[in-house]
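Changelog note: in this version the structure field was regenerated for every chain. One regenerated record is shown below for reference.
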Amino acid sequence: MKKLILLIVAIGLVATAATAGVSPDDLRSASKIVPDKATLATNKVGSLDCSGAIEIALDNVYLGTNVGATNNVSTYGCSFWDESGGEVVYHIFFSEPTMFTANITPDGCDLDMAVLDQCDEDLGCLIVVDTGVVTTAPISGDIYFVIDGYNGAECSFTFDINSVVAPEPVNFCDALDDVFGGYFEGDTCTGENNISSEACGVYTEDGLEYYYEIFMPAGSSFTADVTNTADGAIWVFDACAAPYNCLAYADATFTGGTEVVSYSNVTPNDMWVYLVVDSYGAGSCGTYVMNFAASGGAVANEEVTFGSMKATFR
């Protein structure tokens, strides 16, 4: 894969930059589609009852039902969906930092899953999802999964929880080779999945990737738009290897849509940043075009190695 270096020469531009326990950022919905569900701002019934919580273990499938279960909770502190069905509570304790996926498959009704780090529907609420969750970082301690019925729904369901091997520290520096330009055509299908979840992101991006290295003098800025035949996403980092900081992120469209990301160097120093073309969906990939623009002008010439043209010139 080529190292794509976009050299910004605009200087003096107005620019803008960017614990312990379980954080809501440590969990993401397994689905990119946000369900169209009515909200219920206030309809508190009672308090969550975990006295009958079912103890579970990783890498297992559980069959359950909330038919006839008591409705103790109708809303959760991190969601306003109407969860007026009965609850089924599962509990697991992670003695060591662990990554996992957890999913529910209802049998004919609309069930949701609340994930809590304590048995309190308000203080413990981390996320409420329609299908499942994935971790973005290893977590430890108590975790409660509450299967609840949207708008009073009740039916049987399947609940599965599976361990995920923590990824190796990210390093895509060796995937870089020399290229300069302002307009690019690329294909992520020759790449790897080095980056999935970061705090600045909204979704888990498990697609294959292509990498650009950008030199930014103090005060410079850029905007890049990428149109991907996959369900594209864009990351911007301050290094090509962990530990790094996520500076910007874009995933506002679906397959074939255009994602736009901007970043400005407001520091008094020159810097390098790294733009990653990614996509949503495990192993997904596709061809893309990218327009890159910097206020005040940008160097747009390309040096092609490996005998293949990856960009046209403007």
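Spot check on this record: Residues 1-20, 296-314 have pLDDT under 50 and may be disordered. DSSP finds no helices and 18 strands in the chain.
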